[in-house]
Amino acid sequence: MPLLLLLVVSPVFGQLSDKTGLLTRLDVNTSGHTFEVVTVSNFEILDHEFDKNEKRLTIFIKSGLEDNLGEVTIPQNLLGGNFTFQINDVESIQKFKSSERISFITLNFTGIGENKVDIIGTDVLVGVKEIVEVVPDEVTYEDPGGGCLIATATFGSELAPQVQQLRELRDDKLLQTEYGKSFMDSFNAFYYLVSPQMADYQRENPAFNELVKVGITPMITTLSLMDYAQTDSEIISIGISLIILNVGMYLGLPAIVIMGIKRI
To answer: For residue 133, which of 34, 51, 4, 31 has the smallest C-alpha distance?
Structure first.
């Protein structure tokens, strides 16, 4: 079955709180394709169902909080148009915005325990051809990480341009080469050990979050140079150059300034 988007296993965050943004990626399988729906919420996602005939995405949740908040990002070619919503089969008014590629839905409702959220659109599988025969033994790369947790916490949303830039660099450049995949395997093994805790701390401490933003913005800017890399060798050479550049920027430049101050 061809994957339109990569399967991602979300890291475990532990017990939910009203300050925790729990990232979950849902794989919606329909018409021979797999679509990725992303949620960031303060409740747990138990399961989901999709009915293309009813143009309905159903999300089953469990919450330990009375006030439930969540963001849902849905690909337009899966479900789009004008949305209506139901919470536990009762019509509910929720906010949403749509672009050419995605619909961004903000959920805000009350209720502790298990709840059911129905998202109903007017357009379904736009421009998608149904695949009847599935090619067996197709090899796909599974990214063991989740979203860009620290960048999402820093810039406030998965839809922030900086977060999109990092995701596109990963998906469109690094994961398209063997060296890039090997690098991401090693990077994710470390990154997802520390990033959930750091992202939580950023949300709880706005001042610290601002420091992180100031710190990582120059690095994200330099990563735009990777757009010029097309081959494995170019990815390696530009990648090494960026590492040297950022080491010099974050370590070398402060050291030079400190030495200059001492000489005065």
So the answer is: 31
**Cα 202 to the center of its chain, rounded Å:** 17
CB atoms under 10 Å from CB of 135, counted, come to: 8
Report how far residue 154's alpha carbon sits from residue 200's, in angstroms, rounded to the nearest whole number: 10
pLDDT in tens, 96-118: 999 889 999 999 999 999 999 99
Beta strands in 129-237 (DSSP E): none
Of 203, 141, 173, 119, the closest CA to residue 8 belongs to 141
DSSP 67-80: EEEEEEEEETTTEE
> Rounded CA gap, 12 and 130, in Å?
34
Q: Which domains does the chain have, with CATH numbers?
A: 22-124 (2.60.40), 149-263 (no CATH)
Contact of 189 with 254, CB cutoff 8 Å? no
List, for residues 11-62, the tens digit of each pLDDT value: 333 333 344 478 999 999 998 899 999 999 999 999 999 999 999 999 999 9
